[in-house]
Amino acid sequence: xxxxxxxxxxxxxNVPVPEETDEVERPDVDGQTTLxxxxxxx
Length: 42
Description:
The chain is 69% helix and 0% strand.
């Protein structure tokens, strides 16, 4: 839990959680745009 790598992994799971709520209105647009906007690909 004190490892820096663990924190990074937890953040990745915390981001998609709220995103799913918006996915209801925009499953493809909101999903793909948000991922790229957050910089997950980078």
